Design the sequence.
């Protein structure tokens, strides 16, 4: 099932997308959940909103071995691989809608794209066990983890480098029936393939990430977990169009202006 969130009559509404028709749902994820309504509207990509209602966006860095190598990081024992997931936060202010433009900030000279698989949480979760972790996920979507790489390297905390306004385009919708363990993930810049990986190459798979994250924080309905990026990250230019495509989900398009 594809779940979308749209701007409808001036307010956010969730809907089920079926063959070009949106079956509008009542309620919110944070306000007790979604339920069917009688209303339908034709699908219009221009009114899509990010398909989440996050209190927080929890991100995993360095979760693909080939990306760790390209960033020049060494792990414990010189293996190059982290012993546990490296997590950081983006605030809800970082969300941007699918198709929406993102301004190249004037305070960075090295603005990078990172295409990622995102998990959106459907029920409150703390101390998840492995066998229940994916049950806490409402659906899967594409994310663009925009990063001011120069500021990230200078700063102790990655707050401005990772969590400035609109640094997290998300969408186009949630796919609810999906096995996330071995999906093709690709990032294209102006149509040229720049990242081309599989989610099976993650060091910590979505189950391990959810178990780890929920040890420390309560995941709330509508929260987002970003699972890291494959190799091939690089700088953007004004005028570029970024496409993040995850197999079984769709394409997230972000113009950089
Ligand atoms: Mg990332």
Sequence:
């Amino acid at each position: 099932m594809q779940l979308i969130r749209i701007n409808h009559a001036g307010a956010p509404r969730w809907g089920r997308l079926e063959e070009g028709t949106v079956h509008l749902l009542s309620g919110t994820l944070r306000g007790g959940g979604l339920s069917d309504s009688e209303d339908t509207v034709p699908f219009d990509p221009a009114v899509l909103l990010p398909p989440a209602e996050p209190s927080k966006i929890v991100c995993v860095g360095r979760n693909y071995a080939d990306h760790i190598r390209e960033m020049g990081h060494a792990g414990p024992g010189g293996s190059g691989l982290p012993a546990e997931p490296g997590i950081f936060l983006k605030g809800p202010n970082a969300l941007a809608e699918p198709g929406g433009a993102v301004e190249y900030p004037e305070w960075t000279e090295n603005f990078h794209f990172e295409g990622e698989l995102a998990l959106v949480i459907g029920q409150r979760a703390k101390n998840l066990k492995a066998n229940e972790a994916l049950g806490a996920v409402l659906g899967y979507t594409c994310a663009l983890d925009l990063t001011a790489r120069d500021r990230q390297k200078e700063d102790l905390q990655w707050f401005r480098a990772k969590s400035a306004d609109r640094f997290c385009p998300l969408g186009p919708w949630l796919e609810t029936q999906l096995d996330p363990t071995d999906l093709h993930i690709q990032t294209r810049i102006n149509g040229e393939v720049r990242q081309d990986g599989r989610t099976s190459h993650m060091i910590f798979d979505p189950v391990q990430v959810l178990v780890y994250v929920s040890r420390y924080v309560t995941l709330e309905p509508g929260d987002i977990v970003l699972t890291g990026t494959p190799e091939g990250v690089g700088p953007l230019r004004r005028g570029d169009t970024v496409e993040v495509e995850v197999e079984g989900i769709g394409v997230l398009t972000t113009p950089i202006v």
About this structure: The helical segments are 65-71, 149-154, 159-163, 206-216. Residues 57-255 form a domain with the Fumarylacetoacetate hydrolase; domain 2 fold (CATH 3.90.850.10). The chain is about 10% helix and 40% strand.
